[in-house]
Amino acid sequence: MDFQVVAYDFGIKHNILRRLASYGCKITVVPSTWPAADTMKMKPDRVLFSNGPGDPSAVPYAVEISAQLCDGMKFYTFLH
């Protein structure tokens, strides 16, 4: 059974994708503006928001998308 991950690309590091794939994850990378409803239709096991520009004001839509996905979804977070 594949572990499905939808990765929102805010400036994703390709090593993150390689590492997830090495653990058997099937990854679908979507643009940072990808609608939450479309992600929910994909029924992923997890959602990943990649690292990004650093200034949240540059991506105000991310807050709305993440809020819509929070109900019942599990997220990976990478902090550095």
UniProtKB/TrEMBL annotation:
Residues 7-70 form the Glutamine amidotransferase domain. InterPro entries: Class_I_gatase-like, GATASE. Pfam families: GATase (PF00117). This is Glutamine amidotransferase domain-containing protein.
